[in-house]
Amino acid sequence: MRKIKQFLFVTMLLSGMIYSSCKKSSSSDSSTTTVAGVGEYIGSVVVHSKTDTMLTYFLSKNYNRITGSLELYTSDDIDFAKYLANLKSVTGSVQLYKIRNSDLSFLSNVTKITGDLQISACPNLTSLSGLYKLDTLTTGLIIENNPKIKDLQGLGHVLTMMNLTITNNAALQSLVGLNSLSSITGNISIGENPILTSVNGLVSLETVTSNILMYNNPQQLNLYGLNSLKGITGNLTLSGLPSLTDITALSLLDDTIASIVISGCNHLTDLNGLNNLPKISKDLRLVNCNELINLQGLTKIDTIGGTIELSKLPAFRSFAGPTALKGIRKDLRIEECNALTSLEGLTKLDSINGSLVLDDNLSLTNLKGIDKLKVVRGNVEILNNENLVSLDGMDNITTISGNLDVYYNPKLTSYCAIKSLTLTKFAYIGFNGYSPTLTQIKAGSCSK
């Protein structure tokens, strides 16, 4: 009798486990099943050649939206309009590569793309015409390596997107077509477009949440088109724009910007256009700009939150412009600015939290202009300035928290401006016109 009871107990236990397992499996299956709506294709529509049957299937089922991506990667002659005439939305990206179409009329009923619209290496495409119903482009627009595209006509209803990338389009003349675009919630990157002269077409753009990068557009003359821009939260980088003459289109910028980096802009003479900018929270870097004369345009900025780097600016003559600048939170680096004779213009600068570096400035004769500078919390490096004769201008610097390095200035003979200097670390003075020790300078042997 006891064995019969044990057998019944085991049997009931196993039955419960089997029932529980089956119940759990059923629940799991139902939670992962996605039911397509009427007209909805779930998955990606990918076409590599005209032998693919995906488009025929799509048409036969009368689908009008894709929950996935649309990827057309073929140069085969395919009548996409025949198969996609009913398509209204893509919950994912649309990627077009090497298609032979001259326009995008085969997407004429599409109103929404919630991923990227990427158009690459399409040999006959001249614009984006055909997208006249598209009003939602969530992630971004990527136009790259299209040899015949001239403008971006066709996106007139799109108000916002995350990223805008326009790269290496040999015939692109303007960005006309983006006239309704009011905000970019990510980045703008426009580069390697050999005949692009301006970015007109962005006339309604008011905010860019991250960065603007414009690079290697050899014919770009200005930033016209950004005349409504009020804020750039990230960095403004202008690089390899040898024809750029001014940035006055940025005159409405009135909010803090992270960094400004300008390099290889050989016809830019000043920074007029940044006159309403209140603060640069990180760096200001100006490099390899052959005709930059001064910093006119930075009239409201009182603090640079990072480094000021001025390098290889052969025409740079003065610091005229930043008349309100009081503090630099990292370094002030001035290198190979061969027209600069003094530091006149930095009349309110009273602190540098990093280093002060003056290296290889051919015409620099003294340091007048920083008369209110009291503290340098890094090093002071004065090196290879061929015509520097005195340190006049450093008279009010009471503290240098790092080292003082003064080397290879063959005409430097006067150090009297640093007689009262308190130096936290070490002074290295040598190979100048006169090279006394700091002790000798303090004792009165400060010039020769």
Textual characterization of the structure:
The structure is a single chain. This protein has 448 residues and is of the alpha/beta class. The protein is built from 4 helices and 32 strands. The chain has helices at residues 2-32, 54-60, 80-84, 438-443; strands at residues 40-42, 45-47, 65-67, 70-73, 89-90, 94-97, 112-113, 116-120, 136-137, 140-144, 160-161, 163-167, 183-184, 188-191, 207-208, 212-215, 231-232, 235-239, 259-263, 284-287, 303-304, 308-311, 327-328, 332-335, 351-352, 356-359, 375-376, 380-383, 399-400, 404-407, 422-423, 427-430. It has a 17-stranded parallel β-sheet, with helices on one face. Strands 21-23-25-27-29-31 form a 6-stranded parallel β-sheet, with no helix packed on it. It starts with a helix and ends in a 5-residue tail after the last helix. Residues 1-31 have low confidence and may be disordered.
Summarize the structure.
By secondary structure, the protein is of the alpha/beta class. It has helices spanning 2-32, 54-60, 80-84, 438-443; strands at residues 40-42, 45-47, 65-67, 70-73, 89-90, 94-97, 112-113, 116-120, 136-137, 140-144, 160-161, 163-167, 183-184, 188-191, 207-208, 212-215, 231-232, 235-239, 259-263, 284-287, 303-304, 308-311, 327-328, 332-335, 351-352, 356-359, 375-376, 380-383, 399-400, 404-407, 422-423, 427-430.
